[in-house]
Amino acid sequence: MRLLHTSDWHLGRSFHGVGMLDAQQGFIDQLVEFVGDENVDVVLIAGDVYDRALPGVDVVRLLDDALVRLTDAGAQVVLTSGNHDSAIRLGFASKLLERGGVHLRTRLTELDVPVLFPLDAAADGPVLAIYGIPWLEPRLVAEQLGVEAASHFEVTRAATEKIRADVTARAKAGAVHSVVLAHTFASGGISSDSERDLSIGGVGAVPLDLFDGFGYTALGHLHGRQSLSRTVRYSGSPLAYSFSEAKHRKGGWLIEADATGITAVREVQWEAPRALAVLRGTLDHLLSAGEHAWAETAYCQITLTDSQRPAQAMDKLRARFPDTLVLGFQPEGATADATTTYSTRLAAADDDLSICCGFLEHVRGRSTDDAEAAVLADALEAVRLEEVSQ
Q1: Interval 144-176: pLDDT, tens
Q2: Does residue 258 sit in helix, strand or coil?
Q3: Alpha carbon distances (Å) from 364 to 185, 303, 338, 339, 361
Q4: What pLDDT sits at residue 127?
Q5: Which CATH architecture has domain 2-269?
Q6: What single-letter DSSP state applies at residue 192?
Q7: Cβ–Cβ contacts within 10 Å for residue 37, how many?
Q8: Which residue, 258, 260, 203, 254, is CA-closest to 233?
Q9: For residue 177, with 0-12 CB atoms within 10 Å meaning exposed, 13-18 middle and 19 or more buried, which class applies?
Q10: In what order do the strands lie in the sheet with 276-281?
């Protein structure tokens, strides 16, 4: 039996103002082709199926089409909700969808209700039990789970204890091998800029030992594919959703299982629709350096290091790098004045001309020249004379 671990599709998300539905459609095309070519039996989606609780009509249609195509390709789907999803909306018609091979696990009442798959032909033979832990908001679920402290650790521990108890009970009737989907931040995971913080100060991280004893734990939330232990992994998002993911190799995990349990796990790669380039340097260097030719067709985040912010920098950069989406300015060897905040410099200004020159420098990123300072001085003097004459 083959399972494919995915998560964090974030259908409907944009990338710095650029719509991504076409790129997400491209991922789904790759996914469906892979499922057919590799004879995948079950596709796992560990939360954040949508990017928002109220997805647009075209986004819902994209998921609908994906589920139909995956089941037509011969796979069943098990998915749970993440912190970006509305569990209630995503879980709509779950009983009906189950008849078509799409198994939704978005409710607390279904924590210990697994999707069961036989691992051999015998009626009483070993089974694979797949459980889903949706995103658990501690303040909302603590009472229902019977825990006093509303923390990520306590509610996740309560959820895994319910699952562990069900596995133990089923094991009395025959061999049971378990797979758990969970959308959470597990200790040791490496995050990126595009994930929404689950809590302040990192207290939302849960220890890995909460997942001890399960055959495989398919995690969602972090967007970089990574192994936290032999049995606990993040698949990461199928597409890059921030420039901090520029070096990620997007993919998932293909899991092999038989009557003895989980036998192998291997990496799966997804082809990226566009490269991401994170460039840094002076404007002249970026516009002329041959080493950056590859970035001319990429989405670009560019940081200029010129001592003064160049005029019309974005227009000039886009002449070579048309898809420059983010432009920053960090002059090399900046003076202390350049690194202090605008409010601090404003408080230190001792006359009106300094305030005006400081404002120009703040909004343009470069200091005023002598001619500009002279114009400002004349304007201030004209205002002063008008006030005196009134």
Answers
A1: 999 998 899 999 999 999 999 999 999 998 999
A2: strand
A3: 40, 15, 12, 15, 5
A4: 96
A5: 4-Layer Sandwich (3.60)
A6: -
A7: 9
A8: 254
A9: buried
A10: 276-281, 299-304, 324-329
Structure token pair of residue 194? 């595009």
d(CA 283, CA 290) in angstroms, rounded, equals 14
**Can you read off the two tokens belonging to residue 157?**
């521990």
DSSP 8-state assignment for residue 202: G
pLDDT given for residue 53 in this prediction: 96
Residues in the chain: 390
Query: What pTM, to 2 d.p., does this model score?
Result: 0.83
**Rounded CA separation 178/3 (Å):** 12
Alpha helix (H) residue ranges in 172-244: none
Helix %, strand %, coil % for the chain, to 5?
35, 25, 40
The CA–CA distances, whole Å, from 147 to 17, 31, 158, 268 equal: 42, 39, 7, 38
The answer to whether residues 115 and 127 touch, using CB atoms and an 8 Å cutoff, is no
Residues 291, 369: Cα–Cα separation, whole Å: 34
One-letter amino acid for residue 240 of the chain: A
